Amino acid sequence: MTNQKNQAMNIKYPIDDAHTFSVEEILTSLQTDAKLGINHAESEKRNTEFGLNVYQSKKQKSIWLIFLLQFKSPIVYLLIFGAVVSLYFKDYLEALSILVVILVNALIGFWMELQARSSMNALKKMDIIHSKVIRNGKTLEIASEKIAIGDLVFLEAGDVIPGDGRLVNSNQLQCDESSLTGESLPTPKNTEALPKDTQLGDRLNMVFKGTSVMNGNGKAIITGIAQNTQLGTINTLVENAEETATPLDKKITALSKKLIWITLFMTAIFAITGIIQGKKAVLIIETSIALAVAAFPEGLPIVATVALAYGMLLMAKRNAIVKKLSSVETLGSTSVILTDKTGTLTENKIYVETLHFPEEQLKVSIDNNTLVFENAQIEKSKENFEKLRLVGTLCNNAHLKNTEEKKKEIGDPIEIALLKLANTAEPNALEVKKQFSRLAEIPFSSETKIMGTLHKSTVGQLVAAKGSVEDLIEKCKGIQYGSSIQTLNPTEKKAILLASEEMAKDGLRVLAFAYKVGDEFAHDNFLNDLIYVGMIGFLDPPRLDIKAAIVSCRNAGIKIVMITGDHPQTALNIAKKIGLVDENEQAVITGKDLPALDSLTAAWKKKILETAVFARTTPKQKLEIADIFQKAGNIVAMTGDGVNDAPALKKADVGIAMGLRGTQVAKEAASIILKDDSFTSIAEAVAHGRTIFQNIQKFVIYLVSCNLSEIFIVTVLGFMAPASTLLPLQILFLNMVTDVFPALALGVGNGDNTVMEKSP
Ligand code: ATP
Q: What range(s) does the Cation-transporting P-type ATPase N-terminal domain occupy (predicted)?
């Protein structure tokens, strides 16, 4: 980029009809570059000039309004009526006292609402979305609000798109635009310019803020941010549904209504008998008001809100960000946790541990950028190793940076491990990538379990492919033995599968690598007739601290089930190491064994409900397993990270997304986000959920029993000793002093230590 000083000044923004621009036109008009993007200084200037990428969200209620709203309640109206009656009967002291009480009551409500609001605001701040942007040729992850006009963003499956953008590159990119256009199928994207009158749903060269990438990847130039986006024009979608009533709110409202009806009934009887008996009007009115005040559980809604909001803040501090208030309740009653493996049960610190070639197997480690062969040096497989390293480098979307910045590694941990392997030799990964420029990509998906890339090479074109051994081996025709290539025969296939099984039994995550060279290949269909070069066993150590959490869940009557896309033996090995199943357990159900949901027999259902490890499952099967557990009467909490997990996260009673490695789509679909991705945090969150629920139960029982006894006392005294009945003011004082504060103490208590020792 040159002459960037005044660039922002010359840009016409907002841009209408970016879809009509050719790629070159959009680059020129936004003064950006399809490879380098803009630079950091320029982005800051544009942020200043065009604003940050944030919605002018609906204004929060002002402090004054919150205060004034405390007076908007039937009980306050009643009290004011009581004060007026007192004034009418010239009881000035009583009138003044009532007004003071109204004020104090409002101040307490006001203070509590501020507490709840600051808890909610603190929670919101934790839920920041990041985007991948290319600035000055380098890929960075930045908060989406800092995305600027003209920024070049990299989009891949699972990303929520941060702004409207004109695509400059698309590798089988497909976006879910249902929130914008109503189209339920993913829309395939390309980079061709379109006529002006193209409908929104047909603007295939554009991506839109708030929609998400379902498949493939691509790059787009940001043409609209914040309100100047298609989503920004649809106000209803902008505000999130944070303020919808929770089941708890609804139950509390229903309870309050019942209490009011009881009082009205009592008041009516009391008034009628009073009139018949010829009691004084002032006495009848005062006692009626006293009854109403007695029945109204003033503290209930506000204490409930404070208890939930405070509980959520505590949970957030313990790494579980709760997005929906109601999930706290559900979480406490969870009876089954369906969890994935990588990162949740393992550390997600993946590194290359075993190299397996047709003629030898080697244990390796990387120490300070040097590849160390642990037991024997490589002999017969040098060429296989070079090919494997080349494929691992090229068939790779991760980035490693050498600067001292905080985030040095961006991308899939497996691919990061492959780049580290590549960097142990010369030329390093970056130089290799430059040598073999990429022409096309068939992205990885959990369904195909394979990723492939097509590159220019000195002898024509090169295909690099990696994926699960079972799936990739089916795409191979040849096998490399040192410098010679032979046809892959069934015996060799079997031997490879057997070897991968052995590695999986050691708990390794195994990937196979293959390639082919030729003059030219179709850009969307090159994953066939490949040449197999070898496998890598990646070590991803189990999180051993999980053992205690698993025991604690078991004691709490919660069943834990692992559902993974990985190899059954890898899954079983990890399950044993963390104590999910015992040492002799062999039962694993794989995706291939699992019958379709509509042909499921009772025996299969029983088997599924009794199994603790599911492997090689597809995202669809994950959803089905959740469904089976739910239909058997369980409250199901489910973890997920990928774009394909989103439906299951929505379907589960509590969807838990991974904060570190989870895609934004998964985070949006989930009701809880785990900041550290760890299973231990799930177990802690369940315990917290139970405590909060217990607290709520305690204070509801406390407040309602207080109200009922007050109704009883006022009614009995009203009939038997009208002169000595409690006055509205006294009741209100009782409610405030003896009710709200103790209830609050019950509501935010730490709970007892035995919450996780009972069944949900
Ligand atoms: P987990 O439960 O362990 O998180 P998952 O359900 O997310 O696993 P996937 O990530 O879909 O599983 O991986 C399934 C299989 O696909 C892996 O076992 C591996 O063989 C293969 N695989 C994973 N990542 C890649 C990748 N980046 N490129 C190619 N193949 C991959």
A: 17-91
Ligand 1 contact, 575 CB (< 6 A)? no
Enclosing H/E stretch for 169: strand 164-176
d(CA 758, CA 98): 47
The second-level CATH assignment, the architecture, of 63-117+244-309+688-757 is Up-down Bundle (1.20)
According to the model, what pLDDT value does residue 249 have? Answer: 67
- Tell me if the domain spanning 351-398+424-539 has CATH number 3.40.1110.10: yes
Give start-end residues of each CATH 3.40.1110.10 domain in the chain. Answer: 351-398+424-539
- pLDDT tens-digit readout, 186-217: 889 999 999 998 888 889 999 998 888 888 88
Assess whether pLDDT exceeds 50 at residue 441. Answer: yes
- For the stretch 271-304, pLDDT in tens is 888 788 777 777 777 777 777 777 766 667 667 7
- Of the pLDDT bands very low, low, confident and very high (cuts 50, 70, 90), residue 678 is confident
What DSSP string runs through 354-415? EEE-SS-EEEEEEETTEEEESSS---TTHHHHHHHHHHHHHS---EE--SSSS--EES-HHH
Residue with the larger pLDDT of the pair 432 and 368: 432
Convert the pLDDT of each residue in 491-542 to its tens digit.
Answer: 999 999 999 999 999 989 999 999 999 999 998 899 999 999 999 999 999 9
Find the 513 Cα to ligand 1 centroid distance in Å: 14
pLDDT tens, residue by residue, 683-692: 888 888 888 8
128 in helix, strand or coil? coil
Mutate-to-test residue for ligand 1 from 388, 419, 566, highest number of ligand atoms within 8 A of CB: 566
Q: Which residues are catalytic?
A: 340
Judge contact between 549 and 363, C-beta under 8 A.
no
User: Which amino acid type is present at position 534?
Assistant: G
Coarse DSSP helix, strand, coil percentages of the chain, rounded to the nearest 5 percent: 45, 20, 35
Among the atoms of ligand 1, which is closest to the Cα of residue 445?
Answer: 11
pTM for this predicted structure = 0.73
Tell how far the Cα of 370 is from the centroid of ligand 1, in angstroms: 27
Hey, which residues does 386 pair with through a beta bridge? Answer: none
CATH 3.40.50.1000 residue ranges for the chain: 320-347+543-677
Q: Whose CA is nearest to atom 31 of ligand 1?
A: 467
Helix (H, G, I), strand (E, B) or coil at 278: coil
